[in-house]
Protein 1
Amino acid sequence: MEFQKDNSFFSGRFKSIGFAFKGVFKLITTEHSVMVQTFLAFIMVIAGFLFEISRVEWMMQILATGLVLGIESLNTAIEKIADFVHPEFHNRIGFIKDIAAGAVMFAAFAAIAVGLLIYVPKFL
């Protein structure tokens, strides 16, 4: 089956959105780290409503969640490509995968900091 590019603006965008939703579904249903992060995001939404966080706090929480899930998605894509290119263990592939995982850790630390800044004062 040969790839046919859709040159129509609207139908091309709708197809792109469909591919994006397909990717989100695959991530949430197959990747354990994304499952955990999606669950935590859901918990944070509930906490936001329970603690009646401000509009700015919602924005920061949404951005932090989106950052973590976005970087985790890129990390997963990098890992899948690396495994496809070189299925056996290889030091260089391991190095690349470690760096991608480190990017997720940076985003997770930032999200934890945002969560602490929002919710710790609510308990004090």
Protein 2
Amino acid sequence: MLRELLYELTRGFAYRQIKHPEMRKYTTWLPIFVYSIIAFVYLGLGLDFRWLGSNGVFDKLQTILSTLPGFYFAGLAAVATFGGAGMDNKMPDPTPLVNIRVRGKSISHPLTRRQFLSYLFSYLVILSLLLCLLLLCINAMASVIPNLEKYFEAMPNGPYIWWLLEFLVGSGLLLGFSSMLITTLHGIFFLTERMHQP
């Protein structure tokens, strides 16, 4: 029962498990490329932004990001109910595959265009919601974070641990935003052009 429950609650990430020769490009390599460029520009130019507090970068990002889950959910609803004739045809070879559970067994399922877009938009809904919640937590802790930093700096190896925490949180956010950007652009391309091709 727990396995089935976990399966249902994590299906928003099934987009990343779609098997197709081109999918790694969109789920891994392009987001890492975008992450690398942003990190290189930020570190190379020695940029230093005000990250926390009102009018900080995280506060502005949270404002923008809080609208995206609803937008992506509307896209998911539109795709799920769109009546185009070709939406329920199997995608052309090589057909993308995804593992689904049917009566407790995992099977490899070929995707239709509707299913592919449903997985894409469900991933964007979950990713944008998680990023929004993470930013909400960071902004809520804005007044406590300087005290935490002082606490870690007083510990042996504390500055290294603090730097590692900042790096992990910053990298997680940046990789999440990079993945959301690439997946959004991929979805726009698919909706505007690819789904209308044979």
Protein 3
Amino acid sequence: MRIRVKFCGITRHEDAVHAAILGADAIGLVFYPQSPRAVNLQQACQIVKALPPFITVVGLFVDATMSYIQEVLDMVAIDTLQFHGDESPEECSRYNKPYIKAIRMITGVDLLQLAQVYKNASALLLDTYQIGVPGGTGQVFDWNRIPKDFPKAIILAGGLSSENVTQAIMKVRPYAVDVSGGVEQSKGVKDAAKMAAFMRGVYSVY
């Protein structure tokens, strides 16, 4: 199975276009004002307008109000929603969009139970847990904690880079990998060489 790739935390249209040229399947736009990678509506529209066809645009939210999410959806051509807070399955499902639920790998988390709770999610995104940080920690969690034969599609995140993405794919065999800080020159600004190296790491498993 081909491993999909999402470059998250895109803040510049040139980075989005470069991701597409390299063969990425999706880009992530962060609509969480506290994040150093957050975009406003004008930025988001410019980024999406610059994209070529067949690239999925993912909008990331953290415990956002329904009115704010709807405002974003009314303004920006978002394909898939990604929820990084404590959103319930009902809150995630109310927008008639495919959604991804991020799960922070806190001690004792029951992934099999959460797969049932969020059974309508297109995938679960597994990310490193860090107190007070909903995502983008830059840290790797123990991949051995992921159950074998997991019943839902897994998007693997958390500290991925060109140095470890091949190992991560071989170990976890996820549906997709998600990277942000591992391909940056500064927060929100991607590094073209690091992005290319990351894609080479993904392609090396084939």
